[in-house]
Amino acid sequence: MTFKSSNIGYPRIGEKREWKKLLEKFWAGKLDEDTFTEESKQLRLSYLKKQRDKGIDLIPVGDFSLYDHVLDTGVMFGIVPTRFDYDGGGVSLQTYFNIARGTKGAPAAEMTKWYNTNYHYIVPELNESTPSLVHNRPLEYYREAKQELGIEGKPVLIGPISFVLLSKGYAKEQFNDVVYQFLPLYEQVLNELGEEGVQWVQFDEPALVTTLSDDVVNLYKEVYEALHNAAPEVNVLLQTYFESVTHYEEVTKLPVQGIGLDFVHDRSENLKAVKEKGFPQDKVLVAGLIDGRNVWRSKLDKKISLLNELAQAVDKGRIIVQPSSSLLHVPVTVKSEKDIPDVLFNALSFADEKLDEVVLLAQGLEKGESAIQLEIKSSVKAIQELNHSPQRNNKQVQETIHNLGEAKRKAPFKVRHDLQQKSLQIPFLPTTTIGSFPQTKEVRKQRLQWRKGELSDAAYETYIKEEIKKWIDIQEEIGLDVLVHGEFERTDMVEYFGEKLNGFQFTKFGWVQSYGSRCVKPPLIFGDVSFNTPMTVKETIYAQSLTDKHVKGMLTGPITIVNWSFVRDDRTKTEVANQIALALREEIEELERNAILVIQVDEPALREGLPLKEELHDSYLKAAVYAFKLVTSSVENETQIHTHMCYSEFEEIIGSIKALDADVISIETSRSHGELIKAFEDSTYERGIGLGVYDIHSPRVPELSEMKRSIDRALQVLDPKLFWINPDCGLKTRGVEETVEALKVMVEAAKQTRGKYLAQKN
Predict the structure, then answer these.
(1) Same domain, yes or no, for 370 and 482?
(2) For strand 120-122 and strand 111-113, is the pairing parallel, antiparallel, or unpaired?
(3) What pTM was computed for the model?
(4) Whether residues 111 and 220 fall in one domain
(5) Do 130 and 256 sit in the same domain of this protein?
(6) Tens digits of per-residue pLDDT, 444-481?
């Protein structure tokens, strides 16, 4: 069979988040395991059937997950931390979820970002398990697709080198040995797939687009030679995405039958390499032409031109068309959106529509451009109409951006810190939270009724005020030092601001998976961004009126808004971020005018946007720092600027974090506290800092001794006079009882540590 179209992966969540709801019913004990397993299967099969019916030739199987595909790979090889009482053999569903979510007696596994996306994966811990193949997962899903639907699927799994690079628990010098430990298991998987008659297997190796040493490149040669020898009858598709491959010539010489390259996010480097260096005659080029990470309709004329360029170097019979990456990163379908203006709606393409575009391009490749001429004209017209719309042509915003100057605080940190200590009177080792408090079922119900017009503006505002007062009282009773209003009026930390700024559009069903069952609905930044009306002032002023303690103003920073949105593709992300920064600066000045003197500008996604190539890091970080300072630089010295970041390889960006010149930074660290502390042993940080002392991604309430150990460990390398004590992230997704109990433990840990230090001082 000749294949012309392929898909890398499909969204798990369902058109109306059926997958999320199923998971949460099971976790709540409302479904038994057999029912949950059967309903999961039916969802999975429905996704495969949809791809088949659209005309996709090579349909991925095994990309579906009940939580995370990296976790799936780990448990397939019996990688289970000893704290979860695993005795070997197949990993139970309960143990699988325990690894991801934690238990009362065992913290969850670390979670971090999947390359430079907003998807979080569970980090395998390789130091506590001897890997063995306990479950050939790709084979199971291949059989299911074939038996249930007659689909000759393409099993998908993370390649051995990328898998080990994504894991933890081994020394750098052990890397090769660890890969060799897994290699026989991958050979066994491939062998069993070959015996089953599988035609194509997709090995995802996104590490190939990162900056790699020559030793790792040589390891790729050895590993894929071994895999080829283990099952020479199986066609292996080596799949890369998110960037251009780093070592094109070496990669194209690997003993595989197909190579998947990203021709959307490659900065034209993959295209240049194919044209200048050629492509092997014995391989298939699986060309990622449709953007798997953004929501804009493709200009099919440009895509056909690109295909024609590729066909000059590669016989078109050896080209397969597909998205640039898994469609996990985009919503399911545009068809559910009924309230988006036509000029924007016509220019959108979600997962299902992208598969249609893939099939159209495959037809154009096979039959010629004339075969899809009507579709080409339609796509060009839709995009032109959007580009000519007033929303994309705000001359005042564009002129302001063109004339930007220096962004700098009015005095150095030491001067600001002394002034803030006198004016704000914040105690030693202060406690605070990151911003949000539990969005209970009742909070969500009230907001939904208000949005539907079933609750008046006045009634909704009264309800929000009641929630704010309740949680100000709770914070006072617990004994927190710097309070927050709780963000009960906000659906999402990005969506909320986007709804109040010009240039944004929101969807009703445009959900994507962030981690586990947690789904987010990224806004569409489709026009020039500008300030419209105050966004946070009313609720923050009200909260401040209820207490003598400081209440933080809470904003989301420009880089996070960009990284957690679907951004227009006719402007650079840097320009869009600066537009947002100018709008947020007006908001921060309004808070300051209303005597809100502690203001947090969250940038949890700053690190995740870091380019995958090291040589591109500097320009990205300079632009990110500039945008942040554009927001914060106009405030007075006495106004204390906080920011928050999710965990990352801190030592990689510590210079840029210092350059942000925030007065206080809090960092999500609880799942990798020790690793981050090591960064401060080598690099001094001389501003206020709070390292998250407990994990909010798990319902578990930590012990007092755990929190005290975290605090003590941090204070070995950080200045106690600059240290803050806080959870590692916002508490929006947690329950009320567990939140209150955990914060009580945190405050008690702070009190005992404070007492110990003051006693030593005296």
Answers:
(1) no
(2) antiparallel
(3) 0.89
(4) yes
(5) yes
(6) 999 999 999 999 999 999 999 999 999 999 999 999 99
In a domain, 185, yes or no: yes
Residue at token pair 């035609």 = 199
Token digits for 488? Answer: 């009960």
Secondary structure (DSSP) of 595-639: T--EEEEE-TTTGGGS-SSGGGHHHHHHHHHHHHHHHHTTS-TTS
> Looking at the domain assignment, is residue 382 inside a domain?
yes
Collect the ranges in the chain with pLDDT lower than 70: 1-2, 647-651, 670-679, 681-683, 762
Q: Is 69 in the active site?
A: no
What CA–CA distance (Å, rounded) separates 706 from 370? Answer: 67
| 349 and 484 share one domain | no
* Signed CA dihedral, 543, 548, 549, 555: sign only: positive
Q: How many other C-beta atoms can be found within 10 angstroms of the C-beta atom of residue 686?
A: 12
- Mark whether 257 and 127 lie in a shared domain: yes
Q: Are 212 and 247 in contact (CB under 8 A)?
A: yes
Query: Which domain-ending residue is among 325, 360, 390?
Result: 390
- pLDDT tens-digit readout, 412-456: 999 999 999 999 999 999 999 999 999 999 999 999 999 999 999
pLDDT tens, position by position, 218-257: 999 999 999 999 999 999 999 999 999 999 999 999 999 9
610: in domain: yes
Residues 491 and 353 in one domain: no
In angstroms, the CA 665 to CA 679 distance is: 15
Task: Classify residue 441 as exposed, middle or buried by CB count within 10 Å of its CB (0-12, 13-18, 19+).
Answer: exposed
Buried b (16+ CB within 10 A) or exposed e, 407-435: bebeeebeebbebbeeeeebeebbbbbbb
Strand partners, 486: 436
Burial 745-761 (b: 16+ CB within 10 A, else e): bbbebbeebbeebeeee
User: Residue 340's closest CA among 384, 386, 300, 378?
Assistant: 386
Contact assessment for residue 711 and residue 751, using Cβ atoms and an 8 Å cutoff = no
Count CA within 13 A, CB hemisphere, residue 145: 28
Strand, coil or helix: 103:
coil
Q: Which helix (H) or strand (E) holds 194?
A: helix 175-196
Examine the domain organization and report whether 43 and 167 are in the same domain: yes
CA-based angle 678:681:683, to the nearest 5?
110
One-letter amino acid for residue 554 of the chain? M
Residue that is written with structure tokens 């084979």 in the block? 139
Domain that includes residue 250, residue range:
18-390
**523 close to 76: Cβ distance less than 8 angstroms:** no
Q: Whole-angstrom Cα distance, residue 657 to residue 356?
A: 43
Please identify which residue in the block is written with the tokens 């559910």.
336
Same domain, 306 and 428: no
Tokens found for residue 641 = 């600027």
User: Which tokens go with 453?
Assistant: 């017009």
Structure tokens at 612: 């995958």
Instruction: Judge whether 720 lies within some domain.
Output: yes
With contact defined as beta carbons under 8 Å apart, do 180 and 187 qualify? no
Q: Quote the CA–CA distance of 584 and 588 in Å, as a whole number.
A: 6
DSSP line for 422-488: HHH-PPSS-B---SB----HHHHHHHHHHHTTSS-HHHHHHHHHHHHHHHHHHHHHHT-SSB--B-T
Coil, strand or helix at 494: coil
State whether residue 652 is helix, strand or coil: helix
Angle formed by the axes of helices 137-149 and 175-196, nearest 10°: 20
Q: Which residues of 639-661 are buried (b: 16+ CB within 10 A; e: fewer)?
A: bbbbbbbbbbebeebbebbbbbb
Q: How, if at all, do strands 640-645 and 664-667 pair?
A: parallel
Tokens standing for residue 522: 């990224």
